[in-house]
Recover the amino acids of this structure.
């Protein structure tokens, strides 16, 4: 089984027991939801990620499965000022603890610094990574300084300048809708 297939259906218990980390590169085009956000994706754009599991025992109880997931990439997004591509670094670094049920996750979530996940026989690590990177997307991607100066005609500097500073409200709204 290839590593990427394995990461879609990971036996977390065995992964944590084993302790060997997964260090992988996944092409962005294989993360469909994230790729949809991209403004012209290079075929070799990829996410570098690393996952390690561990068992942590508490006295008198079954050891718990913990997961440390880190990922980073650079994705071209659409600048909401000039509509050009803006290379945007994305990064995530999170600890998770697996619990037996949704009820336990709900009950313990408030008092836990780590994120809680419900244990499944085959855990989709890549879907989790993609979720986290989607959440790391900026709400309004924008160049610090747009490479293309807004077209100004003489005498209209003031008005055109102000208009160019504002993000396109419809594009912003579309992004907000996608976030839900
Ligand atoms: Zn721009």
């Amino acid at each position: 089984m290839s590593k990427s297939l394995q990461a879609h259906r990971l036996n977390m218990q065995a992964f944590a027991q084993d302790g060997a980390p997964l260090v992988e590169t996944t092409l962005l085009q294989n993360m469909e939801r994230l790729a949809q956000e991209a403004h012209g994706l290079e075929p070799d754009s990829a996410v570098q990620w690393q996952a390690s599991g561990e068992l942590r025992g508490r006295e008198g109880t079954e050891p718990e499965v913990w997961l440390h997931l880190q990922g980073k990439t650079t994705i071209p997004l659409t600048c909401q000022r000039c509509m050009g591509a803006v290379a945007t670094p994305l990064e995530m670094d999170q600890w998770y603890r697996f619990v037996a049920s949704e009820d336990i996750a709900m009950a313990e979530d408030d008092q836990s610094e780590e994120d809680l996940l419900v244990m499944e026989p085959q855990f989709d690590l890549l879907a989790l990574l993609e979720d986290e990177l989607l959440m790391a997307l900026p709400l309004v991607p924008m160049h610090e300084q747009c490479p293309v100066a807004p077209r100004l005609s003489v005498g209209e500097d003031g008005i055109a300048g102000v208009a160019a500073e504002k993000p396109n409200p419809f594009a912003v709204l579309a992004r907000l809708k996608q976030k839900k």
